[in-house]
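Researcher: We're teaching a course module on how sequence relates to structure. For the next exercise, students receive a sequence and then see the predicted structure as tokens, so they can try to spot secondary structure elements on their own. Here is the exercise chain.
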Amino acid sequence: MSKPIQVAIIEDDSEIRQLMTLLINGSPGFSCLQAFESFEDSIPALEKNTPDLVLMDIDLPQMSGIEGVRVLKEKIPSLPVIMLTVHEEAEVVFDALCSGAMGYLVKGLPPVQLLQAIKEASEGGAPMSASIARK
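Model: And here is the predicted structure for the students to work with:
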């Protein structure tokens, strides 16, 4: 059996963070390695125990997810980051992708689509919510 896709979550909303952790850990082939409330909390842990992929919110308490992607790309260039956010404005999407995010998903997508996007990203794809891809 192949090793599960190890995911780290950076999300300040504790309920969303817990639900995503439960979904990922409860799905065959996936494992939530770590979950963090802020980008700053994640850095030492991600450098020490790097996951296969990071799901990151944009609206975080101190440094934004967009700034966080830039920092992560400097520290761990090969680490794929998918933005998972409520923002659908073209400028925000553009900024996130230019900062190094390789995928952009809008919160509220069905769980099966989130898992499919994680799988796609882990295989080198660039998952986008349909509403974002149309922009």
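Model: If you want an answer key for the exercise: The helical segments are 14-25, 39-48, 65-75, 90-99, 111-122, 130-133. The chain has a mean pLDDT of 92.
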